[in-house]
What we know:
Radius of gyration: 21 Å
CATH architecture of the largest domain: 7 Propeller
Number of strands: 34
Distance between the termini: 52 Å
Amino acid sequence: MLDTPASDELDxxxxxxxxxxxxxxxxxxxGDGRFVLVGAKAMMSTNGIDWVTTxxxxxxxxxxxxxxxxxxxxxxxxxxATSDDGFFWSFRSLGTSTVITRLDWDGTSFVLAGGxxxxxxxxxxxxxxxxxxxxxxxxxxxxGKKYLVGTPDATWISTNLxxxxxxxxxxxxxxxxxxxxxxxxxLSDRGIQTSKxxxxxxxxxxxxxxxxxxxxxxVVLVGLGSTIWTSLDGDSWSRRPTPSxxxxxxxxxxxxxxxxxxxxxxSLRSGDAPLNQPRLQLILAAGVRIQGAIGxxxxxxxxxxxLGGIWRTEDVIQLPTADFTWHDPSPLDTRKxxxxxxx
Length: 343
């Protein structure tokens, strides 16, 4: 049986290719009015359409947001990065020889996992370590104050990272878990599984092994290849009309109004493009790249605060070529961000 969630914006999806996100995007999250994605580099967007590179060599595999901070796990498993605004990043070390394999957010704390330990932190800087029942080769997934750890063959659940109970009938390597309508949904390499109490699990009726699990308002979404499916109960699923592509969806995240994801080297956004929001150009270290009609007038503006700051006009130009880069002749502050506004 297929359901039909009443979320009209999920019937309209657009691939936005104006900015190349790169071929190594690993994860995407949302917080404090901005979307942040990581991979070989870090990028940020306020609308899911126009993206700016915030770090050209971040090299992270996972990013989460909580308590006013973004935390990203490095590819080496030995370090991680934090950012208070999604733009400026600080590299940090946990100070352990254990390789960190997972990062998650439980609603009040960041959680790292590796070896036979988990680490919990409210600020992403100071961490408390706890032992877990499963040894090497395990996974970690959080949904509120419920934590899953285990291997594809044995899984435990806890509500405090101290006391653990063995789960029944859950299989596979769980990569994502969420709580939706008083039900847990877990995404693993064996498909979607659901549970009312976290102890007894059953396979969802979804036919396939999706790579992405997310929630938008009252709707659960999964990404399977280049397709998106939605459900109200985790069992009955409807396929949504997404643009045809031979590339897979990397991630999906909701800001409460729309869902944004990554497909190939482009961004994917539900609903219509937001109105009355300045579209950001590609921000460089001290300038801006403009792609438009030759002869079109543009005001070059700068700010120190991408979201709430005042934009100051630096220059007004006529575009000499269809792809032109304007450079600030005397950059006095490396924190400046630039945009080009058509006149």
